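dude i think i finally got it to work??
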Amino acid sequence: MNDELIEPKELALIQRFLDSLWMENGLSEQTLSSYGSDLKLLSKWLLTKGERLLSCKREHLLSCLSWRVSQGYNPRSTSRLLSTIRRFFRYCIRENILTSDPSSLIDSPKIGRSLPKTITEKEIEQLLAAPNDDVLGLRDLAMLELLYACGLRISELVSLEISQISMLQGVLRVSGKGNKERLVPIGESAIDSIKDYLSASRADLLGKKQCNTLFLSQRGQAMTRQTFWHRIKHYATISGIKKTISPHVLRHAFATHLLNHGADLRSLQMLLGHSDLSTTQIYTYVAQERLKSLHQQHHPRG
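look at this
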């Protein structure tokens, strides 16, 4: 069933809702697209039952969620759908479009806690030792060092401009989700790698072009997320790391290793750019799992 079967006024309402999220919360296009897809899915499902978004009842929403479970959908995606539905109906109440919220009193589906995948400090050292000292190797090492030193998201890394780095102060000005800025310390090792890249590599990649982005591709343009993801996989392979490595795994490693060495959650929250501390707390479970493993391995009665 395509979008043409959804009533134009419902599509217009969904778009107004998405516009309000963009203006008020600065959500990314990808997140807004997910919200829109969820609401269109609900609208299409309601159509098969002869119902509409603005006239549906609590039992209709429960029936839709039950149908998803019966079809084997991931509980996490169903939980996200319910979150979208709740947010949409709260918007409708606020804008006086509806007087009651059919999504109230619906419990979220229980989902297991998914611990972030990470790698050990030894594996980090193996990965950082993999790039050679040619033009691309110097660039890749600088990117890997910075990713691990600052816990950046890959989108933040590839969009960095030279003006966002202060070598003298040793800090990085990062523009994160919702265009929220944060300052993150870089560390001497990452600074040295960036200096090497700037002095011996970047000019060769840039050629006669002009580009303010810090990390460049072989074409003298900003690196893409996909290209760097493939570079990380390459270095993981040649360094003998068996785990699946991605840019986000290095972000998780940054957080986990800081916590293991005594960092507090509030500081970690600021460094990662999390708006909610509960998002950061997941790393305490990673640290606890590590402590359990060490206890079992080394305690005589473990």
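The chain has a mean pLDDT of 85.
im so relieved honestly
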